[in-house]
Amino acid sequence: MIRITAAGAAAQRAIVAVETADAEFFGPVDESQLAGLLRQIAGEIR
Protein backbone atom coordinates (compact mmCIF):
# COMPACT_ATOMS: atom_id res chain seq x y z
CA MET A 1 0.00 0.00 0.00
CA ILE A 2 1.31 3.44 -0.90
CA ARG A 3 -0.02 6.59 0.73
CA ILE A 4 0.32 9.94 -0.93
CA THR A 5 0.59 12.73 1.63
CA ALA A 6 1.57 16.38 1.48
CA ALA A 7 4.78 15.56 3.35
CA GLY A 8 5.58 12.77 0.91
CA ALA A 9 4.97 15.04 -2.05
CA ALA A 10 7.18 17.73 -0.52
CA ALA A 11 9.92 15.18 0.09
CA GLN A 12 9.79 14.04 -3.52
CA ARG A 13 10.02 17.65 -4.74
CA ALA A 14 12.98 18.23 -2.42
CA ILE A 15 14.75 15.16 -3.81
CA VAL A 16 14.21 16.37 -7.37
CA ALA A 17 15.50 19.85 -6.44
CA VAL A 18 18.65 18.42 -4.84
CA GLU A 19 19.30 16.11 -7.78
CA THR A 20 18.89 19.02 -10.20
CA ALA A 21 21.29 21.22 -8.20
CA ASP A 22 23.82 18.38 -8.04
CA ALA A 23 23.61 17.84 -11.79
CA GLU A 24 24.26 21.54 -12.42
CA PHE A 25 27.12 21.76 -9.90
CA PHE A 26 28.82 18.52 -10.88
CA GLY A 27 28.41 19.08 -14.61
CA PRO A 28 31.10 18.43 -17.19
CA VAL A 29 34.53 19.80 -16.31
CA ASP A 30 36.61 21.75 -18.83
CA GLU A 31 39.86 19.81 -18.58
CA SER A 32 41.95 22.68 -19.96
CA GLN A 33 40.71 25.00 -17.20
CA LEU A 34 41.36 22.33 -14.58
CA ALA A 35 44.88 21.72 -15.89
CA GLY A 36 45.57 25.47 -15.84
CA LEU A 37 44.37 25.76 -12.26
CA LEU A 38 46.53 22.82 -11.17
CA ARG A 39 49.58 24.36 -12.90
CA GLN A 40 48.91 27.67 -11.13
CA ILE A 41 48.61 25.95 -7.75
CA ALA A 42 51.78 23.94 -8.38
CA GLY A 43 53.63 27.15 -9.25
CA GLU A 44 52.52 28.80 -6.01
CA ILE A 45 53.68 25.84 -3.93
CA ARG A 46 57.22 25.89 -5.32
What does this structure look like?
The protein has helices spanning 6-25, 31-45. It has 46 residues and is mainly α. The model has no long low-confidence stretch (mean pLDDT 84).
What order do the helices and strands come in, and which of them pair?
Blueprint: H1 6-25, H2 31-45
What's this entry about, in short?
This protein is mainly α.
Task: State the main characteristics.
mainly alpha
Q: Alpha-carbon distance between the termini?
A: 63 Å
Helical content (DSSP H or I, runs of 4+) = over 70%
What does the radius of gyration come to?
20 Å
Oligomeric state: single chain
Q: Main sheet?
A: none
Approximate strand percentage: under 5%
Question: Could you say how many structural domains there are in total?
Answer: 1
Q: Helix/strand/pairing class, anyone?
A: mainly alpha
Question: Rough shape?
Answer: rod-shaped
Number of helices: 2
Strand tally, please?
0
Order of helices and strands: HH
How confident is the prediction overall: mean pLDDT? Answer: 84
- Ranges with pLDDT <50 over ≥5 residues? none
